[in-house]
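**User:** I keep going back and forth on a fold encoding question. It is easy to fool oneself when nobody else works the same problem. Could you pick a protein and write out its sequence and tokenised fold? Could you put it straight underneath, so I can go through it closely?

**Assistant:**
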Amino acid sequence: MKKFLLATAAISLLAVSAEAKMFSIHMNQGTLDETRSFKSVKDVFDHYKSGSLDKIFNTYDDTKASNSVLDFRGIDMNFVFNDAGDLNYTVPEIGIDENFSGGSQEASFRMFLDYLKGNKNGILKRILRYGVQKTPYDMVAGNPNSLMSNMTDASFERAGGGILGSFASYFSPDASTHHFKYKGDNKKAEVVTLPMGKTFKFANGSALMFDLPFSYTDMEGSRIYSAQFGMSYMFPVMMKEHFEWRLTPGVRAGAVISSDMLAGGALYNGTITSNIKVPVGNMTYSMTNMIGYIRDQSVKIGGYEVAYDMKNTVFKNGVAADYDINEKWRLGGSYSYTFYEGDDLYIKDYSDINVVLSRELKKGSLFSRVALVGNYSFGSKDYHAYRIGISFMF
């Protein structure tokens, strides 16, 4: 058993490095016609504003006109310099067309960055909102690997609708791989998550629950960090021999940041979840229904004023069945469906299929139960994901 736990923990904490990159520049200047890729958009911007594009493209001359296209997380941005160093910045998909005259390419680009940082005319908000609505790569919202979806899933699982369907205190490291297809490109995000939670149970059957999930994401080499804090209160509505009904109101706040992706934001939500369990012999059937409201909070990240101004209502519903194999071993499975209403999102709905094999440990052990968990998620726009982890309950 110890070897099994150690092997599983190693698998759950393994993240494979990606080879592709999230950003690219295609440059045209005279006979120069080349493309370069980057893991961080900061590297791209630093070369523009320091006048060092010749370090990327050997023959580049910052005193001559040029035309470059930056693939910014799936959004094409055009940087056109004339011979005087004036910059015309356009994003055709969004209808952005701005001009900056600084007397040189470096100065004009720095004017553009100041404009972007100040969110003048809502330019940054328009770009971020478009990324949420039309691409699968935003880390705040718009896809099942975003902070919005991770907060939704954490609230649902904490209220009894997750893989374990338990109100225990826990530590549950896991690793997942999310696959996206966009404009013919296949990209993936590899995530390591460290969720932990503490439960205080009361004599009347209610419980006050706290949880604190941390996660690290590698999106084709770009690094992303996020954290949440959730608090919920579960109380019984009806408790009979073959019927248990609990309600769980909860609140949650979360933040995500990535200098590589020029991404970041803060969200908060409120949810109410109903969980019904029906024990029948060695089986326990359950149904969980959650409704929540989630929105973002304006924050400053690296000098950039980041605000999405999003408001969404989320619905998540699921069914589960658990089978007691014997006094120690339990096998379970569940299915859940999530969908969002409100501001437009690239992927508005997705499904989860979960399996869990758990074993009760002997009294006096550090943990009361340990479980191997697995998940397959899928949604529209060719999205799918795999997750494996191990949960220690105490």
Q: What stands out?
A: Residues 23-132 form one domain.
